[in-house]
Amino acid sequence: MKTATAEPTADPHWGDNRVLAEDAPVHDWYRFVLAFPPHLVRSYLERFDAQPGQTLLDPFCGTGTSLVAGKAHGMNAIGLDVNPIACLAARVKTSCHEINTKVLRKALKSIVGKADKQCRKLGLVDSDLPLFNQAEQAPLSDDLPHLTDEENRLLLKDSISPFPLAKLLILRAAIRKLDASPLIRDCLLLALAKTAVADASNLGFGPEVYVLKQKKTDAPVLSALENNVHQMLKDIELVRGGAGLSPAMESQTTIIQADARQMSEKLKGRQIHAVITSPPYPNEKDYTRAVRLELVLLGHLQDRKDLRALKEDFLRSNSRGIYVGDKDDKYLNGNTRVESLAQEIEARRLELGKTSGFEKMYHKVVRQFFGGMAWHLKSLKPLLAPGAHLAYVVGDQASFFLIHIHTAEILAEIAADQGYEVVGIDLWRERRATASGASLREDVLVLKYQT
Ligand SMILES: C[S@@+](CC[C@H](N)C(=O)[O-])C[C@H]1O[C@@H](n2cnc3c(N)ncnc32)[C@H](O)[C@@H]1O
């Protein structure tokens, strides 16, 4: 195995996971904590000698970081994700050149005007500053818009207080009634999602999502939405003025809400020259948890059945997302490294006398996760142009009884079994495992494919 620990490019920001100030426009319209930064994508576009007019795929596109960077490079961009909020973010960000700013400004004015009237009617005041841990302003009226009990059960407890939530729901209703193009509506919905998490909720990220001790009893939600849309308008002017994203206008974009394990049919006939992506890792993170508020607020989840259906589309990266009938491990073709890792985890569980339902699933997560990635790599092959380059950003893990999972190395073996050339493993950065303090690598697995 070729393991490169040196920086692969002369990028002075190599290893820095923060978004650089010059990349904030558009990328900051909505981001995940687990998103990688645009300069990482640029490093690999340079290294791969990616050309304008070629096609970049991000099969786990999240909030669209690589797609926006690829378009700025003049490439056509294809993004897949199973999370509808990720698809919304990727769609809006990659369409920044097509957004009619005059229409967006007018639409914003209209929905905020209507929402303001409705708030006043209900006695809701859009205070200048958030109010923390205070008694409610007024008794909660039955007329106050609220979520159903089923929807509430999907949220982390106390994610959001009733007054800010009511304002968000009033804005949502105004956006739904708006007579506007799908893109204008999507811009407003994305800004609403950002407002919900960043300005109205009681959520913090570190990087796990958690509920803050200080609860926002109320928050200036309408004005926060206005600020977020005004920032979008400013960024659009900036990029149209030639900053960063200018070549994007000529390139094409496709964003599909779909499973990256079975994409060959969905993308039939497309030719992909480069893949830059960051899939989930087997790290016990439930990827739907960090976005529950947005999923419920924008109407993508109404009850547990919806949540279960969504989770079933995700790669199996945590013990709460393993289902009877999961068979992704059959794509491993007896890979001995994954099998012995899974056996080691199960043996450690028995040795420690751990008996919870979740702990019993750990060895299954390992088999199903790597099996799912093998399935993904298989379904990708027919779409790749000869000599296509691929970069997978993945982290090592020690979530299962502190047994170290060398994610990039194992994926490299699986890719080699499938006929990919393993170019190398570049160290992106190192983190400390919370429980053991052990050093965990975050790597970029670099592959090449000759048909
Ligand atoms: C680490 S995040 C990617 C973040 C992204 N690089 C960004 O900058 O925002 C992994 C993504 O994989 C998505 N995902 C999980 N399982 C998937 C599947 N089977 N097919 C497609 N996407 C999936 C998750 O919804 C999540 O958005």
Model description:
The chain is an alpha/beta fold and 451 residues long. The chain has 2 domains: 3-92 and 245-449, Rossmann fold (3-Layer(aba) Sandwich), CATH 3.40.50.150; 98-240, no CATH class. It is built from 14 helices and 12 strands. It has an 8-stranded mixed sheet, with helices on both faces.
In terms of structural class, how would the helical and strand content be classed? alpha/beta
CATH topology of the largest domain: Rossmann fold
The amount of beta strand, in percent, is 15-25%
Secondary structure: helix percent = 40-55%
Q: What order do the helices and strands follow? A: EHHEHEHHEHHHEEEHEEHHHHEHEE
Heterogens: S-adenosylmethionine
Distance between the termini: 22 Å
Brief account:
With 451 residues, the chain is of the alpha/beta class.
Give the SSE layout.
Elements: E1 3-4, H1 24-27, H2 38-47, E2 55-58, H3 65-72, E3 76-81, H4 84-94, H5 101-121, E4 131-132, H6 149-154, H7 162-177, H8 182-200, E5 203-205, E6 209-211, E7 216-218, H9 221-240, E8 253-257, E9 272-277, H10 292-297, H11 304-313, H12 336-352, H13 357-380, E10 384-395, H14 407-417, E11 421-432, E12 439-449
Parallel strand pairs: 1-11, 2-3, 2-9, 3-8, 9-10
Antiparallel strand pairs: 4-7, 5-6, 10-12, 11-12
Helix pairs in contact: 2-3, 4-8, 5-7, 5-9, 7-8, 8-9, 12-13, 13-14
Bound molecules: S-adenosylmethionine.
S-adenosylmethionine is lined by residues 32, 34-36, 60, 62-63, 65, 80-83, 86, 259-261, 278-280, 287, 313-315.
